[in-house]
Batch of 2 targets.
Target 1
Amino acid sequence: MGGEQIVEVEDLVVEYGRGRNVVRAVDGVSFSVARGECVGFIGANGAGKSSTIKTMMGFLFPAAGSVTVFGEKAGTTDSRRRMGYLPEVALYYPFMKARELLELYGGLAGLSRAALRQRIPTLLAELGLEGRGESLLKNFSKGMQQRLGIAQAIIADPELLVFDELSSGLDPLGRFDLRQVLLEIKQRGRTIFFSSHELSEVESLCDRVVIVDRGRVVKQAPMAEMMGPLTEFEVLFRMADGAAPPPEVAALQPDRDGESLRVVTRDAAVFAGALEALAAAGARIISTSNRSRSLEEYFINLVRPAGNASATESPAQR
């Protein structure tokens, strides 16, 4: 992929435990994130997403492989200064006010008091917390705490945003507000990397997707390339006097659907050619349709073996 690589993960291995009790949570994961990209990191529980993200932040150390951020080893002070981070579970002091929390994080990021006075009310309003700056965090719901966690991650407008389970605890309105904020950040050229169970969110925000399963990357591709093959085109038809379908259609191996024949393809050009051939052969077109599979459906089919209702997970693989 072209452009400056902000994050580079190469053959990353993360393990927990010692001796015979070692559990490998991440097993040779490799990917990169270019400047200005929004990349979705998806996988089932236990796939190794959080372990990978914690290693990117410098909270865990690789058993093998490497992670660099802004060209430096993950976890350095200089690289962390240029990042905003939201952990999977964010815990804040319950007797602190929302404004105080944002002042703390903003101050640590180098923002002046004057800048924070101007920035905090606007940011709270953008994330659906308008007027809650003086509220104690002990009175915040899980969704409100998640909104505040996102606010602390973006308050200093960092070059790279890393979110572990981006929309955890958010209701549909909260997810909508968040999507608008992230789209605006993306339009300003910031780099975003996040894991999420909301695959519709990944579809709407991401330029590229990295899918992991049981500690390994099983698929990574641009979103357009990922979603393109998920559209199926179908035509239901009857041939005059029982004639054979034209060669272009016969090559698609039509299925008999009652008294009619049906062909399905994922190639729009092939579909258009089949319709032209059928019309030229005097076929009666009964119906045409197209269906787009969701990223969620694609993901399930990719990581769940046929006939296996659930994947085996290790508690350490997070």
Note: The chain is about 35% helix and 30% strand.
Target 2
Amino acid sequence: MSDTKEYIALIASRLFLQKSFKEVTMKELVEKTGMSKGAFYHYFKSKEEVFLESLKLFHKALERDFSTYSQDSLKQFYNDYLNDTIRLTQEYFKLFGHAFRESEITINHFAMVFDALRLLPEYRKNIEEPFKIELQNWIKIIRTARLSGEIKTTLSDEKLGEIFVYVSDGLGINMIMRGVALEDMVKKLKHQWDALYEQIKV
């Protein structure tokens, strides 16, 4: 992506976090970037194109590098995940949330995602692919933990991986809707994962 295109996507992202897709106009997007109409339209021909590029920027900002997490211990893996959640979210707020409270930006982010799912059917793959990658990494570390003797359970690697992911997703959305602060959310998730780990550790 060119620097100019990324700049437009960043400015647009902040605007889409304030208003719904329907409320934002192309005129407003052009004005907020400070560019001429001709220069703007050189990069984006429609509001849908800008919106999709903004969403890609959000996904890029929250992308995890699972290779940096422990590959030897399930417990260390999920603690690395929790620490990375704090880091990624703080960087996300710095990039997109200058004029927002933490609870506002997270709720508005989900509103954007639901707008995209409704308006842009092709966007669904942007949700499904990161989920598959994350689940594969959970399955991999669970398999390693089982083989090393760290854990013992009758649950399959796939089923246990799904439980870790769904607990995270469900708790995250619930606490975001209730306006719970990031640090408290991570503490609660750690408590839930620790409880699960206690049931399966050897």
Note: The mean pLDDT is 91.
